[in-house]
Amino acid sequence: MKKTCIIGWPIAHSRSPLIHNYWLRLHGIDSVYEKLAVEPQHLTEFMRQLPESNYLGCNVTIPHKERAFELAAVRDTLSSRLGAANTFYVRNDVVHCTSTDGEGFIANLHQVQAGLDLRNMRVVMLGAGGSARSIIPALLDEGVTSIGIINRTAERVESLRRSFGPLLCYVDDTMMETALADCDLLINTTSLGMQGQPPLQFDVARLKQACLVVDIIYTPLQTRLLRDAQKRGLRTVGGLGMLLHQAVRGFELWYGVRPRVTPELWSLIEADVRRTESSA
After folding, report:
1. Nearest Cα residue to 234 out of 202, 198, 261, 265
2. One CATH from 3.40.50.10860, 3.40.50.2300, 3.30.360.10, 3.30.240.20 for 3-100+247-279
3. Catalytic residue flag (residue 65)
4. This prediction's pTM
5. Residues 2, 65, 208, 231: which is the catalytic one?
């Protein structure tokens, strides 16, 4: 029996097995999706042995996305643009890779906010790390007008601008009020506000009433940013759907079936997150 897996260090927190094994049962596929703790010093060996292993492919999470991308024999245009990948699959004994985080982000927006049109939207993004990098090209492909990035340092933003072009800009203190007042879509890509992390200090009162507020964090399911935005009557989208939708294409690449993100799956993963929240 051929299998699939997710690798990372650490990996105990991953909910990917819940998602993929749900789909395997639903579609009657004789396989299993596992999670494997792979230390950084063992990553090269794991990736090189993947074509001869019993795995059809794997997902890769922190801290391996960049190094695993470098080890793949065939890298698609998107992952090459990002310099990282989260999905790997074997074809004719050759390891291919891609990134599905951006499409998962966009698919989540469209599922939660039906009829949403991102064309000509002015985006403000909090953070300039790996999550921001994976989402930016998907936003540009959707036709947003600009992406202003609030970050502690301008250097990280400048690196993103070099990669993705002049629609990106660093939002400094002199630009902050105007950028937030004009913002159509606010996205938190930082870990601030995540369970076990420092809180995100952000005043949603600076946003206009039509602004859509998105937090890619899903632990907790309702971050302080989302609660504050909802109290103001703003539309919001949480991060759980991004986790679910980013898994779709990997499953399709491995098993030849494109699964759906159903209410049943959503409830299954949401319940697991709530159990974690209650035990913390």
Report:
1. 202
2. 3.40.50.10860
3. yes
4. 0.95
5. 65
